[in-house]
Design a protein that fits this description.
This protein is an alpha/beta fold. The protein folds into 2 domains: 40 residues; 173 residues, Lysozyme-like. The protein has a 6-stranded mixed β-sheet, sandwiched between helices. Strand 3 and strand 4 form a beta hairpin. The termini are far apart. 33% of the residues are buried. The structure holds zinc ion. Zinc ion (ZN) binds next to loops.
Length: 220
């Protein structure tokens, strides 16, 4: 074999190695991207148009609290109270999360909400606005739900909580091109005593709607 063809052969071997290395590199990159996509929420979860002040601590997809069913239209925003005085937004979020564990949920309860407003007015988002929550049966398919924490048995919201509920509700109405007429209570959906204080005090409920209307008009 001439030294020329030997050189050519060496070169071919080198190119072969480069090709294998490049292939391996691309494979590792694709695998890493795939694993990252499993670890972190899908981009559509993050780009769902929810207000930025809402802290996204999304639930794990599961049949008891985050079924992953698409939410394709929103006609009303529904207000709830957590019915567990003094509990935090985080604790209520974790309650929804743990429903997927049969040890914590022997009766197979299905429950969740898109948002939870806490005792200090903090907002946690549990379900992306692209998916339904289990809060407003039989209207889970065309509503967005807000659970609200409260300090005592009366179910009345604290001042900080109330302000945050008004802001969040107004922001959601704006997003969907709705008005204060589209803010309803769980009670209006199914007759359930929820949110308790605002079912028992119609004037307080109408005031809340009026405050939402003003917030919308001011457009802040
Ligand atoms: Zn409710």
């Amino acid at each position: 074999m001439s030294s020329k063809s030997k050189r050519k052969e060496k070169q071919e071997v080198r190119w072969g190695r480069v090709a294998i290395a490049a292939g391996l590199f691309i494979g590792v990159v694709l695998l890493t991207a795939f694993l990252l996509s499993l670890l972190f929420p899908e981009p559509e979860d993050l780009k769902d148009g929810a207000p930025e002040y809402a802290e996204k601590i999304l639930l794990t997809k599961n049949e008891y609290s985050r079924p992953g069913t698409a939410l394709t239209k929103v006609n009303d925003v529904v207000i709830h109270y957590v019915a567990n005085p003094g509990t935090s937004a985080k604790a209520n979020r974790n309650y929804f999360e743990n429903l997927r564990q049969s040890a914590d949920n022997p009766d197979g309860v299905k429950a969740s909400a898109h948002f939870i407003v806490g005792l200090d007015g903090e907002v946690i988002q549990c379900i992306p606005l692209t998916e339904i929550a289990y809060a407003n049966y039989p209207r889970n398919e065309d509503t967005v739900s807000i659970e609200v924490c409260h300090p005592d048995e009366s179910g009345k919201f604290s001042e900080d909580t109330y302000r945050a509920v008004v802001t969040l509700t107004a922001d959601l109405l704006k997003k969907y091109g709705l008005t204060e007429e589209n803010v309803i209570r769980h009670y209006d959906v199914s007759g359930k005593l929820c949110p308790k204080y605002y079912v028992e005090h119609e004037d307080a409920w109408q005031k809340l709607r009026e405050d939402v209307r003003e917030k919308l008009l001011r457009g802040e």
